[in-house]
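Field reference: sequence -> structure
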Amino acid sequence: MTQTTQALPADLIDALLVGRVWRDDAAGPAVVAVRRGRLVDITRHAATVAELFDRADLLDLVRAAPGEDLGDALALVQAAPAAIDGVRLLAPCDLQAIKACGVTFAVSLLERVIEEQAKGDPGRAGELRAQLQASIGTNLSQIVPGSDAALRLKEELAGRGLWSQYMEVGIGPYAEVFTKSQSMSAVGHGAAVGLHPASHWNNPEPEIVLAVNSRREVVGGTLGNDVNLRDIEGRSALLLGKAKDNNGSCAIGPFIRLFDGGFTLDTLREAEVGMLIEGTDDGFTLEGRSRMREISRDPLDLVAQTCGAHHQYPDGFMLFLGTMFSPIKDRDAPGKGFTHHMGDRVSISTPSLGTLVNTVQRSDGIEPWTFGVRALYNNLARRGLLAAAGAREDATS
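Structure field:
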């Protein structure tokens, strides 16, 4: 599996893809659709992806709205992060909140408990893993969170001194849903992802990401890397923000694929997400897969726990669904497990969505995040696109 053959969906001719690119001639971003392998700028019909996803004619716009041809989509994906003719690929979301679910797979549940008990020390992970597997086993995937069986297991584990805050969200009634990153801060395909310089035990987390509009409708899906700092979070769950939300710590892309007759939420429920880590300094490789059918909470349950009468998202949100991939293969020394090296190349793929590729650097060494919501709206105003958005709202009210 190479970046070239896996970059875009295997059934590209049938896929409805939406994304964002940076246009040098506009000094700002554009909303694009992919049609027959070509990028088409549809920004004058919807100035932001968040606005596009709220349109009742969403699918029609993506299929046929007039727009400027910006070139070959595959060529731009392969060139990323470089530009072609002043066009550069961005993360495919903009104003949406970026949320993430944790501990949604049994394997990741065990690894979170190990992080907690290891107190951020990777050298203790192997011993703790063996102890936990001997005590509670590894097959927790059959336990329905919040069920009577889950409550009985909770009581048993608590009685044996094995209960954990991660067990609570793994098999309890409430999912862990946290803010992964800020609107406009996600990096796209080809960009560098960032590790906080204080971290020495970390890993990628390959995930399916849902795109949800302001009406709580799941309109499509994409791929994401929920970069994880195991040592920081392992010291205390109260350090989750420091572990999860740093410059470049969230990658999404290459494009968002919209649901239609041939691509649905059931497609993602049955998806297998592959990941390949390639070390550029030591030749290290690691492969793994997450099988979405093994998720402990249905994606729609996770959406409902994120938004509803209790919480609204007027610009929609992107929702990471969690991963079962927790790399434990030793890299630097026996018993030390896996951690990133600078320059690692991480590829996350599934046939229906393509491949998201990023390289690993320190968060204080990559390009700073400077183009936020104010910059976006100032740019759209200069281009006359905010007035167009107001006219569209008046026409539909």
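Note: The first helix runs from residue 3 to 6.
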